[in-house]
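#struct-pred

JT: dropping the chains for the assembly here, can someone run the whole complex?
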Amino acid sequence: MAEVVLKDVMKNYGSLYAVNNVSFAVEHGEFVALVGPSGCGKTTTLNLIAGLIPMSGGDIVIGDRVVNDLDPKDRDIAMVFQNYALYPNKSVFKNLAFPLQMRKLPKAEIEAKVMAAAKVLDISHLLERRPRELSGGQQQRVALGRALVRDPAAFLMDEPLSNLDAKLRVAMRSELKRFHHNLNATVIYVTHDQLEAVTMADKMAVMHGGVLQQYDTPANVFGNPVNTFVASFVGSPAMSLIPLDVVSKGTEVALRSPEEGWELPLSPMNARKASASSNGKLVLGARHSTLKLHKSAAAGAAPGKVYTVEPTGDVTFAQIFVNGAVVNISLDPTVAIEPDEAVWIEFDQDRMHLFDGETTMALKAA
Amino acid sequence: MAAIETAQRPVVRKPIDWWRWAGRVFLTFLMLFTVLPMAWMILTSVKSQFAAMQYPPQWWPSEPTLNNYFKLLDPTNRIGREFLRYFWNSFYVSLLTTILGVVVAVPAAYAFSRFRFPGRTFLFFSVLVRNMFPAVVFLMPLFLLMRWMGLVNTHGSLILTYLTFGLPLSIWLLKGFYDNIPIQLEQAARIDGATRFQAFILIVMPLSSPGIIATSIFSFIGAWNEYVYAYTFLSRDDQMTLPVGIQRFFTEFATDWPGLMSATFLMSVPVVVLFLVLQKYFVRALTEGAVKH
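RK: done, full complex below.
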């Protein structure tokens, strides 16, 4: 196992930058999730680490070697693909043995290692089968096994769970996490599913448009998103974002709805943040669980109108229009509200997020 | 009573599906069209020269004989010696054409399928240009070219010509096969420790073997049956290929029909055998189970 370091990594196709100046360091034994919407450059980044496509610029270090010009085979990595990429003409045993044969290990050792990996993954009874004779979950295990037999410096995984059905995906998620725990393996894991990233990873790298937005622990990414993109991407339901104006009256600072005219006074801490706004506009962000619903006007609450109500059993989600923006809120299932009902939303001053209206970056108290 | 009976056994009359019947009639005609000449060829080949010329014809040979075949396959007489030589020439030319064709088409098709290089589309469509013209159009230019290169009266001229004609189809066919093999398989192999070349040889080649076999059969048959170029480029007797050599059964005074028919039958044997043995590769699903779709 080893650390993996990316420094100013670039990949461009003409004027299109698929990966733009991405730098981050994965420490030994860390599980890092590369996450972002489709086309954000996360898979390209993984392929650059694997050496499957040439870099346009920057450095990649695996262990203590700069691997920029090394072939994939010399980088000492293992990869699990989204479509598993099992060799269809080989039995499961031969699929698992292939990486070892390529490294010219003695036959007895190959057999011992394959058996050991098969036992860990509970696929010992499948060794003589062909990949097409396996179920999706079993194929997934074989793909994992092929990465596992080799004890590589780092595991790269490209959406390994996205082809499984929902139930199996949750089960495999726990197993992957356990597998990482047992092996103390360095894992770089690409997913578009922020929930997978939050639940499994030690750190997550949120990417958008080829640019790394934030690289931090899931708790920090969730708690202190650096900009509105990260804020709306991580967490489900998404963080609600309401664009508002900043108004100052003497020492008091408040937020005003440009359309509806209501005002929301800010706490001194938030007031200092809001004053840092570059053009007097900002975006107010709030997670569903920090909001309180009132049926009548209340101090520090903004007026809204109920759009939909979605009971899920133990919690009811509602979407409410506030100043033209959709606000997600979670409610106790006993609260009865109707679509089109007028309600008031109270914001938690300690847990609200303020983003600059122009740069979309999180505002810091000056 | 009658009413009750009808109620108990309702008459179900399926409408006649005229399209289906039209299809069957058409297929029957098609079969007769292809099978009858073959049957007549085989029947004639086991007749004596006299029986073959009788009028009205003998539909079924009264004294079947295999003498014609013995004569053709017996290297001690002149006819047998010549036939076997033509057969060998044809086989040798077709086999070399096939092998060289595969050797060139496989890497070419792979490159067209996997790599993006300047002029790729132009090159890919330009291999098709040859197929836009009938083969005869190239007869004179190629003959002059072969003469200039000193290849007239060599098998090399034929092999080169057949390659020119066979390669475009082979490359297009094989490219389709490679397009269907997920690139992740190669990537996985490369990460598992294979070089790019090893990944191609160990993973991609076995998966594309049905395609390689199919294209081999196409180019073999193309070379095996070709007549015009062989007739033009070769003038020495001992170099003739079968389609040209068989002509020698038409002599000045009479045509040895049974002999011609048995030679034709023997000529069709390798092609039929090739198809029968290898036909399963035409239909075998390529990458079934390789990836989850």
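JT: nice. DSSP finds nine helices and 20 strands in chain A. Residues 166-183 of chain A form the longest helix (18 residues).
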